[in-house]
């Protein structure tokens, strides 16, 4: 069951039963197979979200991130035998990162930036928890802290996880415990609390790609017709 965004509860410990550990193992095995193909093709990649933290549910997605700008056709070639089910170019707001999303079966998505990300934009993934392929099979010891959509800090313990509402922590302490900059903690709190009040309002760009379209070519079309995206992309390209 998906958690409602930004609804914080009391601190508690959640003990995982056998079925939870089995689900975590299954999801990580699926993620590991995708990561292996991407790393074999020369890409640095990570899983992020509940699969990195360990607090998965039957509805959990497998989210994989390549953190740097890469040639999209090379990523697609590496995933050619995995059965790509869809592709989208996505931008949350006119000033945010432009990303490619490639979808596979079994709720698996690989994403990567089409414009150079800032350190804070990369911290977004670590904020929710992010780990690489090494030791992925160690579901007990290789879990990391991160924040879920309820604004609860999830911290692994041997039997499951402890969860603490961010409202009980200063942004600086939360940032230190997650391993990110304080700025991303403050930003995500603002964004998620706003979503709790007004709901999810959608994204600025959500552009599915046709089979014969490439991400870079579609981005150039958008840049030519949208001054806000053009400004964002040019600012990043100058750095």
Give short descriptive properties of this protein.
single chain; 239 residues; alpha+beta; Beta Polymerase, domain 2; 7-stranded mixed beta sheet; 8 helices; disordered N terminus
Distance between the termini: 42 Å
Order of helices and strands: EHEHEHEEEHEEEEHHEHH
The largest sheet, given as strand count, sense and whether it forms a barrel, is: 7 strands, mixed
**Radius of gyration, whole Å:** 18 Å
Count the E strands.
Answer: 11
* CATH class label of the domain at 16-142 and 201-237: Alpha Beta
Percent in helix: 25-40%
Physical arrangement of strands within the biggest beta sheet: 7-2-3-6-5-4-11
Q: What gross morphology would you assign?
A: globular
Based on secondary structure, the structural category is alpha+beta
CATH architecture of the domain at 16-142 and 201-237: 2-Layer Sandwich
């Amino acid at each position: 069951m998906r958690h409602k965004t930004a609804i914080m509860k009391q601190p508690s410990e959640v003990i995982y039963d056998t079925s939870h550990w089995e689900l975590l193992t299954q999801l990580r095995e699926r993620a590991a197979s995708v990561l292996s193909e991407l790393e074999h093709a020369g890409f640095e990649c990570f899983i992020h979200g509940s699969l990195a933290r360990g607090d998965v549910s039957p509805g959990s997605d497998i989210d994989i991130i390549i953190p740097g700008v890469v040639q999209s056709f090379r990523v697609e070639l590496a995933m050619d035998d995995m059965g790509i089910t869809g592709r989208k170019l996505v931008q949350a707001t006119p000033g945010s990162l432009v990303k490619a999303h490639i979808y596979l079966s079994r709720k698996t998505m690989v994403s990567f930036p089409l414009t150079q990300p800032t350190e804070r934009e990369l911290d977004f993934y670590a904020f929710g928890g992010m780990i690489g392929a090494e030791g992925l099979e160690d579901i007990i010891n290789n879990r990391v802290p991160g924040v879920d959509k309820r604004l609860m800090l999830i911290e692994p313990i041997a039997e499951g996880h402890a969860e603490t509402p961010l409202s009980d922590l200063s942004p600086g302490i939360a940032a230190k415990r997650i391993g990110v900059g304080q700025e991303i903690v403050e930003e995500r709190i603002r964004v998620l609390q706003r979503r709790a009040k007004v709901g999810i309002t959608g994204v600025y760009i959500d552009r599915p790609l046709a089979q014969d379209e490439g991400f870079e070519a579609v981005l150039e079309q958008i840049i030519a017709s949208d001054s806000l995206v053009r400004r964002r992309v040019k600012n990043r390209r100058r750095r």
